[in-house]
Amino acid sequence: xxxxxxxxxxxxxxxxxxxxxxxxxxxxxxxxxxxxxxxxxxxxxxxxxxxxxxxxxxxxxxxxxxxxxxxxxxxxxxxxxxxxxxxxxxxxxxxxxxxxxxxxxxxxxxxxxxxxxxxxxxxxxxxxxxxxxxxxxxxxxxxxxxxxxxxxxxxxxxxxxxxxxxxxxxxxxxxxxxxxxxxxxxxxxxxxxxxxxxxxxxxxxxxxxxxxxxxxxxxxxxxxxxxxxxxxxxxxxxxxxxxxxxxxxxxxxxxxxxxxxxxxxxxxxxxxxxxxxxxxxxxxxxxxxxxxxxxxxxxxxxxxxxxxxxxxxxxxxxxxxxxxxxxxxxxxxxxxxxxxxxxxxxxxxxxxx
Length: 353
Ligand code: AHG
Ligand code: MN
Ligand code: MN
What we know:
- By secondary structure, the chain is α+β, with helices and mostly antiparallel strands.
- It has two domains: 8-191, Fructose-1,6-Bisphosphatase, Chain A, domain 1; 202-334, D-Maltodextrin-Binding Protein, domain 2 (3-Layer(aba) Sandwich), CATH 3.40.190.80.
- Helices cover 29% and strands 22% of the residues.
- The chain has eight helices and 16 strands.
- The protein has helices at residues 8-16, 21-42, 65-78, 215-226, 244-254, 275-288, 319-334, 343-346; strands spanning 52-56, 62-64, 84-89, 107-115, 126-134, 155-161, 165-170, 176-181, 186-191, 202-204, 237-238, 257-260, 273-274, 292-294, 311-312, 314-317.
- A seven-stranded mixed β-sheet has the order 3-4-5-6-7-8-9, sandwiched between helices. It has a five-stranded mixed β-sheet with strand order 11-10-12-16-14, sandwiched between helices. A two-stranded antiparallel ribbon has the order 1-2.
- Strand 6 (155-161) and strand 7 (165-170) form a beta hairpin.
- Helix 4 (215-226) packs across helix 7 (319-334).
- The model is unreliable at 346-353 (pLDDT under 50).
- Bound molecules: 2,5-anhydro-1,6-di-O-phosphono-D-glucitol and manganese (II) ion (MN) (2 copies).
- One manganese (II) ion (MN) is lined by residues 67, 90, 112, 114-115, 117.
């Protein structure tokens, strides 16, 4: 029993009273969708929705049944209330128009309904990421209305479906975590005012892409791997879950850095992650918790979007580490860094006098 503890509804109503009360109602609908999704993914193979479909999404990725179903869950939970001018998602080529039978509002909801969906069949944490923007007037949103930079977000959050389901939220006044009490069905405020720990010795990156990275990222990771024997003078640990939600959650809880940087694997793609519904909301949550989020060359929140599904390099987490990576990018771009030499070779007398 959690009598007297702060529920998500109470928190949201208090934080959005007045001018943003309709956004509060929208957030409560988002939380309802998250509970539905939590129930669905929590059933695992018993849900009967494991596996892939024949379809691909706008990014050419094979859709899973759960990608489509979780997308539907959010649309159905949030379309009716009259707060929205439209919705957009990773799983829909074009923005979703609110059906004629429902009233329209001024908010825009943008989301990744199931992040890390490659993990859903192997029972590893997945999540939902969302971002809320607004237009100046109520009415159907045009595509161009969505193309606002991350700084314009009014709220952002994610749900993580792990051993416990949690919802982590910011409405621009800190980042706060709620844990789903499965008995009462309430989200209870368990992690008020989360702060990203400053000191970190943990990094997350998909090292199978190492040969495609730019030199500043290769330099940073090599220095972490060199550990006590290198210029960092400390051993680092590495994690890669392949669910951004789970990586960001770990960083909010115990610090660290997450990178899906620019690479030259496919020159048409400047990164793997999507700006509007992955990078921007996570950047807001991390910044509101005292961390930093960058492309390596620019604050993510200041990137001016050109298209709804555009990709962006992502480097986020503990501020000092993100700043170090920004410095390495700058030194590389201006030619101020020393040529990268693998610390492995530096240690071998065979290669040096
Ligand atoms: P999604 O399942 O929404 O397509 O996103 C998966 C993303 C992100 O969650 C994760 O960090 C990354 O893709 C994993 O990429 P790799 O498969 O390259 O490791
Ligand atoms: Mn995703
Ligand atoms: Mn997804």
